[in-house]
Amino acid sequence: MTDATWHGGAAAVATLTFDVDAETPILAAGRRYADHLMTMSHQAYGPDVGVPRILELLDELGVPATFFVPGWVAEQRPGLAATIVERGHEVAHHSYSHRAPTSLTAAEQRADFERALEVFDAQGIEITGHRAALWEATTTTLELIAEYGLTYDSSLMGDDRPYVLGIGDRPVVELPVHWSLDDWEQYAFLPEPHVGSAIESPRKVLELWQAELDAMRHYRCLFNLCLHPFLSGRPSRLMAVRELLETAQSDGDVHFTRCRDLAAAAHADPTLAPRNPPAVTADPTIYPV
Amino acid sequence: MTDATWHGGAAAVATLTFDVDAETPILAAGRRYADHLMTMSHQAYGPDVGVPRILELLDELGVPATFFVPGWVAEQRPGLAATIVERGHEVAHHSYSHRAPTSLTAAEQRADFERALEVFDAQGIEITGHRAALWEATTTTLELIAEYGLTYDSSLMGDDRPYVLGIGDRPVVELPVHWSLDDWEQYAFLPEPHVGSAIESPRKVLELWQAELDAMRHYRCLFNLCLHPFLSGRPSRLMAVRELLETAQSDGDVHFTRCRDLAAAAHADPTLAPRNPPAVTADPTIYPV
Amino acid sequence: MTDATWHGGAAAVATLTFDVDAETPILAAGRRYADHLMTMSHQAYGPDVGVPRILELLDELGVPATFFVPGWVAEQRPGLAATIVERGHEVAHHSYSHRAPTSLTAAEQRADFERALEVFDAQGIEITGHRAALWEATTTTLELIAEYGLTYDSSLMGDDRPYVLGIGDRPVVELPVHWSLDDWEQYAFLPEPHVGSAIESPRKVLELWQAELDAMRHYRCLFNLCLHPFLSGRPSRLMAVRELLETAQSDGDVHFTRCRDLAAAAHADPTLAPRNPPAVTADPTIYPV
Amino acid sequence: MTDATWHGGAAAVATLTFDVDAETPILAAGRRYADHLMTMSHQAYGPDVGVPRILELLDELGVPATFFVPGWVAEQRPGLAATIVERGHEVAHHSYSHRAPTSLTAAEQRADFERALEVFDAQGIEITGHRAALWEATTTTLELIAEYGLTYDSSLMGDDRPYVLGIGDRPVVELPVHWSLDDWEQYAFLPEPHVGSAIESPRKVLELWQAELDAMRHYRCLFNLCLHPFLSGRPSRLMAVRELLETAQSDGDVHFTRCRDLAAAAHADPTLAPRNPPAVTADPTIYPV
Fold this sequence. Notes:
Four copies of one chain form a homotetramer.
Chain A: E1 12-19, H1 24-29, H2 37-61, E2 66-69, H3 71-76, H4 80-86, E3 90-93, H5 106-122, E4 129-130, H6 139-147, E5 152-153, E6 163-166, E7 171-174, H7 184-187, H8 202-219, E8 222-227, H9 229-232, H10 235-251, E9 254-256, H11 259-267, E10 274-275
Parallel strand pairs in A: 1-2, 1-8, 1-9, 2-3, 4-5, 5-7, 6-10
Antiparallel strand pairs in A: 6-7
Helix pairs in contact in A: 8-10
């Protein structure tokens, strides 16, 4: 650790990420929900109301961010990805349809992965990183990332610092996520499809994330926060994000960066040895189910 | 936004709404629950104990409110709607039976919608607005609202300010709701039918709503609070509502109004352009489930 | 309300009740759990460790309480009910087997109800009140209570003050309960059978109950607290109960009483008119499910 | 109680225990999850990142602990158990595969139990105690513990002080656990397999455990804390554990010990009479399900 350079001397590195899922996670749970107007409007709030408000906040605070956008969403809202990039942020790959890779065949995963790349290519958006839908990456997911020359993935949980995945010939940096740094588990609620069962106070969520950031400054980790515009774009939740960011800025030792820039720093860090993703063999005589 | 007039100059507009569901959501989940005395009494507490206590509080504070009442409930308790109107509040359409429109055919939706109108017509209650049962509106729901000349709906989540739905020839104002401004997710608990899994402290709920109201004053939004008399009519929960209202009154820049009055102000606001509800087409080759 | 006498002039009346369920709710969920040692020991903790500790606390504070004991539990632990009565508390009827009456035929309900009475009769324990297992009373439950001359039930939620049930010829007083004044929803957790999904801090629970007691002093209600020795008998939870009781005692206007004594006061109150339990008729053409 | 010696005069005895489950609980829920990389990495974080960080903290504070390690985990990570023992801590039996004994035949339980013993024997790790996977011990589990001469089990909940199980000829001490002193219910979250539905703030968890420790000092109990490195090894959660330990150390009357040492003290305590585990007979005429 003592020679590591990925953090550039900061106590903690913070990547502020927004998963602009819009309607996709709901449609992936059931095509019929397209006719459920409340549910669709609940999701549309994300790109339509949340994203503009978030961009305004980021401008005001001067914080760069990364927006993971499913190809379907970029296609349905043609100006969305370009606007984000024009404001100085990164747009990254978040599948085409937001179906979990673990629920698809390898061929379906490839088709979905490539279709998203085509959408962004057609829109002139340069993509260098990936986050799996529902974070449910498979070995195929990682192979596609390496094959297409992306520099990082952000879907796994094997550490709380960047690490290098040894997939095929090219190194891919993993920028690990965690359930506790995601707004979904704190705020998401829908009865059908069933999503979440509690709605927490932004005060509690701020306390949770603030404590983790403070501890990560102690342990020198990556604070990789995952927010959803349809959730954290709501007024009081965004005010909590503002307070979190302002506190981190006043701490003075937290470095905010886009995922692609952190990935570049991690690739350049000779202390990050390749670590294969866990290859678990489950013996059916031991685990028969 | 700068020319908008719907808010009348207030920092935030607050509509205090009560869904007087009584037994209907439970009967919609299963007719057999009519014989479960505890469950029925749990629901009956709403109109029988909660509503009188709520009306007393509103009188004391001078706050106008809107009561969404299923037709079945108005029919079973003949004096209920009239009493609410006599106290200066609004009674609005909340379906007849509280079955989710998304679970009904178009013909069933029409029959349920019209039957509620007949009940209120027979009781001399003038209806100008609607909220879908479980907020589960369909396109048919919105068409019925326009067909019958109601001025507003309050079931969708596409924004946190009023907006105009472009349905057929007549404009209908949407007064959007949200899960985080509903007491159901915070307080409701029944093992059978399974409703809720946690019972929050009124202190937490007050913190949640107070934070949203404060942030909505910052962003100039509609604070559309949805309460259920069988839940928020309980002593300590009503004390929390009282504290919320008193704080808002002392803020001096929050305007309390009935939904119908806000809908009229929104209809008169030339800056509110019609916005169609999200018309999502989900391609079965992408979303096969 | 002004002439009511049931409260004896106190701002709020508090009935501290303990449901000594032991293994019964688990066995009712599945006989096979008898072989799950952890689960059985989790339930046995109630009568074996919780009850002695609770009795000690009640002695120390001089607070009378009511213990609802299933007949099966009294039978399995022969000295339990007698010890409770000797310490000055009330033992009341809580079914024989703790199966929900709503899941039994009328004949099964009668057999279960009478078998519990036989157990207490054989042990010389005088029974004057009843609480349904899982609070799931049916009309048959109330008829049995009236038939056997018990003076009260404590299973329904139609009010937050005592009321009189008009069942048959004899009046029966209802001492209403509520989910928010039950420790089960706050503390209970078992993966199999699935019971609960969160374990709250006693600090939060104390806040919840303290707020309700304070508001009930404002509205002059019955604070009918339902505790389970296997849950609230744990050290920090019992300390929270102690704090609640000590605060109530220092308030000076809360009257603690056994259910049977409150029922007697309610029977003697001429202002409590008979109110039938909700007789809900659910039309199958409206509620087809 | 007055003559008891197991506590050595301390107000409370604290056993800090870590269940190093790694991938096993997930594989036991479904072998297919071996291909879910995020889930596997989420579990691998425990031994790979959590355990080293925990060992460092324990060194710093001088607190001894007990690590319950499934045989499969010890086998997959050959140096893990030895490292723990070298740092002065105890490694104890936590099944081979982490399948619940209640879901296995007696023969399967024996095979799983013995296979774990063989792994530890081959690694030169001396085992003296046991904790059942998921705490789901059966009578067979206890008989195996006695047969193989282990001195204690730590899976049941019949008390909050050590007690002696009367199994066969040899006494086995039970060091009881409880759901409220486990980090799983507070922190664990996975959508598939479904694990947990809320992620609590370490501040709330610290409050919960601190209150229990304080009350256990009042009642002189065993504070048997169960932590999982994949959960409590996360930065802010480990900081909360640190704060809990430091407070306990500054209290001056809490004795930290390894389970095996406490078991020895309990065996030497003549006041701990054998208590059979609850032998519950559930009559099928009463409990037909």
